[in-house]
Sequence to fold (652 residues):
Amino acid sequence: MSRRLPLGEGEGARTACARGVLRTGVEEKTSEPLSAGVLAERVGWAAGLVSGMVADLLAEHWNTLDVNALASGVDAGGQKLPSNAWMALRRLGWTVTPGAKANDRIVRMAQEQAGRTLRSAKWRADLTAGVLKTWPTDPKKRTADEWDAVREAVPGGQHVPSSIITSRTRQISASHKKHDRLPVDVFELEGSPRIARMLLLSACDGQQATIERADEPDRALLRLQLPTRPDPQSYAHWTWVACPITLPPTIPANAVLHLPTLRLHQGAVHADLAYTHAVPKTQRTGHTVALGVDWGLNTLLSAGATRLHDDGKITTLGSGGTFRASGVLSKQHRLRRQCEVLHAKADRYDRLIGEREGRTLVDKRQILADEIRHVSDRRSNLNDALACSAARWAVDQAIAARATVIYVEDLRSMEARRMGRTHNTRLSQTVRGQIVERMRHLAAETGIAVVMVPARNTSKHCPQCLVPLRHRKAPDRPTVAGWKWAICPSCAWQGDRDQGAWRRIAARGLTHQTKTVTDRASGAMVIHSVADRLEAKAVITPAAAQTGRDRSKTGPTRHQAACPTPRRRRTPSPTRPQDLAGQRPEGHAHTVRRLPRAALRNQGVTTISTPTTGRHRPRGAALGAGFHLHAHASPPRWEPVPGAAPDYVSLS
Fold:
């Protein structure tokens, strides 16, 4: 099977990963079928051999000198190291001996896994060294000169988010408080990493594993050698096993399959199926229609499309939309508090176990550890579901508007402060990073670029005239200071601050698209700085007014009819034949169907004034209603896209 992917003009290769499960296997020599339990047991034996060798390699080379030697990219003779981690380790002479009889491909997988772990530690080692070299007088608050010094000491520190430096400083401060001294380097600070029990089949060749597509387009056949006992003593204890795999529908029929990574999870063998397929190339510049995305707390995402005209004017396409997940975030907040309580109990048991001896305390501590792991898994699954749903919504908005780029507010350096302990914690734990990564993954399928835009003054200045806005509590309380509703004192624009922010983000991205840079390692696109000359052009041109009436929300907006229609029918129902049943009685129509309780709640983050009496309760925080009844997108508003076909409409 050829691993080359034919590409057309304007196309690029994209490698992605999908999840699969190995549910059965067949012993090729004896044609004996293997159940899922037996297959998981044999894969576990192979993974145990590999993880043992990885542990030996990391124990020997988990230090500054060896990590720097591997990251330097050259060997002792000055020759360039290969990109494959296992080949680089062999060039440096870092070998390992398996604890049982195994072929060289098993050793390759161990060297590949250890090499990837050592390479990933280089950036953390440089960051920790830079923070230790410029340790501040007060670790809780650096001065401006100390910030400049630490950014100068860290490689690429000018573009490193301040939150990362602050988190590393807090980690070092905790170690200093515990040991009464600063750590020497990151290897003393973090210790040896945990070894994952997995098989990186990508480091092998056809003598250890192969994968081919079956006759059906949604099936593939994985062949690999597995041991027949935990400690194989000869090559006869390794046999070929054929495992059919049902490919997920996300893998295109013309995609090229690569050898997967096998992992054990809850007694089943999971396969991370890597594949490469052709997608349209993303462009850094030349964009005319863009989608701006702004972050919020209860309104997780606010987005809308804008268009850059030939004369340099920027207009909006529709009124934008919102993705609300207040119920999901409330559940995440409850799980976080539950996890904190469990950790506090576990720490208490640790102190008691150190003071006294007893099997009962150890057993209770183990029960707490299992419960902590269970709650942590629930939080991770909820974050993954929320990230997938939010990213899918944002990319769908861009596809519907025919946008070629998504400009996302860059909040990597944001630290939530001065908003109360609850709001600060919820803002800090928002899954923004996961959403952006999922957004890049989904947008790449359609050739849409995702660019990070600086967040400076996106919610502070007016999108139409760049004058500082006045933020109020609500539109019906224009004299009460707040943060949700924004009013421009110059051009009289007013609206939700998040709706104004996505306009500013999209306009800033369109005017600064020539300053977009691409990271060579990750391929992520970002605009690092804002130029005043370009920022002066990042204004939204308001649409022509269709009526001279006041459209503000400070008064009643419904037309008061002179003779309102009666709510009940005053005439009797018409006579009907006696043989016809099911006649509706006079009055209102009876509502038979009822929505679930979470759907009945108003989960939208409105900008009207909130009640001042009673305890505040998050909207949409109903228990037991499910994820999809807690995450809501704004209702569609259709508007034709300029330059598109007459029958094409855009969801904005």
About this structure: The two ends are 44 Å apart (CA to CA).
